[in-house]
Amino acid sequence: MIKIHQIYPDETEGISTLAHIFQLEPSSLMIHDVEHFIKVIGQYFSHRNILDHNFKVLSLLESIENKGFIIMNSYKIYGHNRWFCALTVLCSLKNFKQFNNWDIVLRKAIRIFKPSDQFSIYLLQLIVYVIGLSDIKLESKTLNYLLQLSHTIALSPLKCFRHYANSISKKALTRSQLENVDLGNLPFKGISIIDINICWLKSNSIDKILMRIIEMFLNNIENREGGILYKTFLDKFDINFEQWKTIVWNEFYKMFIHIDYDSEFYQSLLKYWIPLTVSKYQLNLYNFAYHTSIPKLLKAHILLESRKRGHLIQSSIKEIQFLNSCFKKQETCFVALQIIGCPVKKGKIPPDEIEFKLLQKYLNEKTEILSSNELKIIQIYLVRLKDHLKFLNELFRQSTSLLQGSRSDLGAQILVIFCKTIDLSNSNNEFMTRYLESNNIQLLIEHKLLTEIDNNEFSKLAVLILKNLQIFVNGFPMKFIDNLSPELSIQVSNQVRNVYHAIASINFPQDNVKLVKDIYTELNNIFRDNDSFEATKLFKAVLLFDALNQLSKYYVLEECSQWIWHVALPNVANLLQSQISQKQSNQSIKIIEALYNNICEFCMENMTLLSGEESFSAVIHILVNVIQNSSMRRPTTISATLLKHIFCVNESSLHKLKICLMNITLEKLNFCHERQSLTLRKNPESRLIIHALCSSDFTPQKTFLQFSLNYLINLLTNDSCPNATVASTINCIEILMSDNDLYEHTLKFAPRIILLCVQHFSNRNWIVRNACAQLEKALIDRFLGVKIGLNNRAKNLEDLFQIFPQLIRPFVQMLQQNPLNDSAIAVMQFFIESQWSLSPFRTEVFYEVQYVFLKIFQNFIKENSSLYGTFASRAYISLCPEKSLPYNIENVIQFIRDNFKNIQKKHTIRNFILVLKELYRKYTEKPRNSQEYSWLHYQLSLLTNFLQTNFHLEQFDFLLFKVLSLQDVIKQLENFKKQEYFLDKVWLHNYIPFIAFNNSLAVLPHMILSEKIPECLQIKVLQILLKRSLKEDCSATLKMLIFRGLNGEFTSKYLQISHFKLVLFIFEQHSEIIEFCDRISLSFDVENDIFKIFICLLILSKQRKRSPRDLLFIKRSVRIFESCLFSADDDFIEIFDEMLKYLYQMVTCVCDKKRLLNMALILILEYGLYNLISFILNISIPNSLSALTVLLDDAFLRNELKRREKKLAEKQLFIKNN
């Protein structure tokens, strides 16, 4: 290392020092070395008074950049790396305030900045220093360059650069700069959005602002900035709620009607739109939204946000009714639970009793255990109940009742929350304390632990309440394993882990010591007899290791640990290989796999107990052998993880061993077999070991990574390498490039790796092609971001070109090869995977780059009918910015019309139709102006008319798909059977989803569901109506379906069943159809059709008043049900079982109830169906045996068959009329 004080006044000494620095290779330097060299150069310049002559310093920079040398006092000093020399000279100026050409220095620093080179951080420090000088005045052009730099810094893969972006942009972002920038491309990378928002809001109409906010909400790349823009909009315009309803609500309401709950737009509403609007307008939003037709789930979230912010402290009757309806639907019940459990901010408000009853009802009807989120909500609610003993005790009794009943897992979950939340030592909670400390609860837990192997909630409860250790004496822990070992189930393994976690956490230390010794003895006995490994014995060993892994957190027996390292691990590793080679049963292999996994888990947790280089060498040999020979993913992965762990813990002592293993592994790549012996893909025998060695290297230089990547790249550049070696090498590179921890250290290799990947894609060997495809996917995910939606990513290829501009020329050359090879496909895939956008800070160079690639892809589309043309079509679309899409579509249409004969000759029509289709899809991804849509459809219709006049139209399904009216399609559907051309029928099949999803529910059933339409297409429409009924108001649809079900004719029984299933589903999903049913008048002329009877019964079940004529029909229906039951087939019987509950709730006569219960008994015994019993009890019954037990219970029958006085009058009236 050069010391600063070593630079003497002697000119020769200073020049020698400067020459030494200029000859250094940057890749061999550490970052702090460069900082030191910058200081040395600065001191030398200061000593020679060079800085007093600004022109001379700048001429030195010009000389080193352009010529590669500088001349100092007649000495010519050459630079090994021109960029590095320019950087050190430029950054050395930072320490001298008398320098006055800072504007030029800034431009030079911006020009030589490399976003992928870590040494560029000194350029950023120089720039931040210069723009922070108080007396500096920068030109407008320099400010523009600084904004461009901020954008580039934000793209940098080096995280340490990014915080400089805002510092630089704040200084450069002036009012005049904003006026020269197209702000329609918000947000900008690296630039604070708040200042830009205010300027943009001032210069645009409200409609345009809201449209942009909606666009930003549609994807998770821009939705955060969309939220900031919406907040700025609310603050800046300060509109009242009435104005907001007119201006904002109308724009968003269009999006609510067909909202997708899995979409990013829905998530944006929850994260930004609802909270910001509620914060601004408080309860006004909920009171308004409650009376609109938006989905109930959105209303629930608005109510929840109002509760969270303290605007709604106690619920009114309206909110209670709304909550009750939310609990009845699967999609809204969780939000309803959140609303009840929402903490109250304003003072200590007592819980609402009706809400508490709703919570109890929810828990009683819960058929599964609570999720982690539900548990958190109930825990928060319990905190509110602390001072309200009445509610607290009632919920506790409900939990204990569940614990002792059929839902013991759910009861245990809630009791665990009680133990964690409520202070049981408080005298007010004696009742709970006595129950939890009683012998009964401990005996119950012991019984459940031994009998219910899939009930993990009891072990969690045991950790908290088992203060009395009586159940753990008399050998219970070992007896527990002995009882469960014959089960051979993964649930057993989980149960043992949970139980021993409880035991180890509450045991005294001496008891844990005894248990460890007992387990060690048992394991020794199992492994002593190597020749008689049976599945049950091995599974018992799995369970013993499950237990030992929990106990080792509290106590480790050294003797046992050494035995595991030196006996158990090698024996099981050998057994793993021998079982696979002998082709044993899958169950045996899985047991050995689980045992090996448990042993490795123990070894990782107790690494400090292994010592000595020989011991480590033996263990590493075992792990490497498993990795290289195993064909199972789990042992291979756990071995690689343990290997990495060993290297990390003992980095210094195993350095020689690591070097030896790295050399051996890399050498083996030269001798890969063409045919793999392993079933696992991607050559784990090489890549996992190399990755473990590289990722466990914590030296700043990352020596192992640098060496291995250089070696692997050299292999790929060797044309004589066999295909197997190439494939294995690519797989090794992929795992290194995918590791987040190694990301910044692999950047300098990235351009070369990308080009090698693309070049080797031309290899037609399958394993090489597959390896290249995997590597390319990893590189795209790494540098462009994970895919969001269809080919949309956080970054695009232009951003990649800004980071690695050296890729542009090779990409162009590969696309212009003659003849083309498949490397061109790999290049085009980089374009297809992202969408270019118009950046306001794009340089002229990138406009030229885009133009060059567009021309290349256009030529492919026009001339190439093969796969290259298809890929070029998609790549061309990715280069079309959103604003230019209408223009692009018009150009393509015009070109087709003008050059169709030439297109036909070259058979490239498929390319043009694909371009049109994808451009249209890209255009419709975001909300557009209706006039634009009309104009676009007009252009498409012109092309359709042109093709209809001159050519066969069946090739252009896409155009028909977007242009033909509903009436035209209906006519074609009615003549479906007359269609002679097969492709026309296929097209109609494919068109049905578009018709069914994009037309009003009030019109669709009437037009599509008619006797003239083929049955297969009607069934397809019914399926789509089923999906739409989940999210939309179906009252009009239901009316048409009922009318057709009662009066229409069906071509087959299957169609009629499908039709009725939709009617039944809408009835069960929509509770608000009561008023609709009250208005229906039934004729009951349906005696010969059971499905018409079903529809009549559904309507009657929802009507609030029944006439004597209705009661007579219900009475007759019971006998019809009896006759149908014995002639039912499998398609019919499930519907029959569902309808039984509707009939049961309407009958008033005891004898009719007996008949229906008798039918229920037959359904349970013959078909295992028990809906009626679940309906009567209002609980979920786990199986048919439980339902049968309930049905045959005397108390149940007495309760159901007793005569009620209030129904006596109805019965007498029935007898009189009969």
TrEMBL record:
InterPro entries in UniProt: tRNA_methyltransferase_THADA
Domain of life, per lineage: Eukaryota
UniProt-recorded name of the protein: DUF2428 domain-containing protein
Organism: Hypothenemus hampei (Coffee berry borer)
